[in-house]
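Q: what sequence does this backbone want?
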């Protein structure tokens, strides 16, 4: 029996699986592309703050170029 002073909270809806990074939905992403991205991200995390910012800026620029070109790995 629900408490009238405290309504029963709604249950969250099922969360869909998150796609791998690498482009628009449906764009082919090779396992190697995924591993390369993960390795570059991990390597950037180990840098000092200034170099880390540059590394993440470069990753950002590359991903933006991929998205703007249709999400292909050849960009």
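A:
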């Amino acid at each position: 029996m629900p408490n009238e002073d405290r309504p029963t909270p709604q249950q969250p809806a099922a969360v869909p699986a998150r796609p791998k990074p690498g482009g628009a939905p449906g764009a082919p992403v090779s396992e190697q592309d995924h591993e390369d991205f993960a390795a570059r991200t991990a390597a950037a995390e180990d840098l000092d703050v200034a170099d880390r910012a540059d590394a993440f800026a470069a990753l950002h620029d590359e991903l933006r170029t991929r998205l703007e070109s249709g999400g292909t790995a050849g960009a």
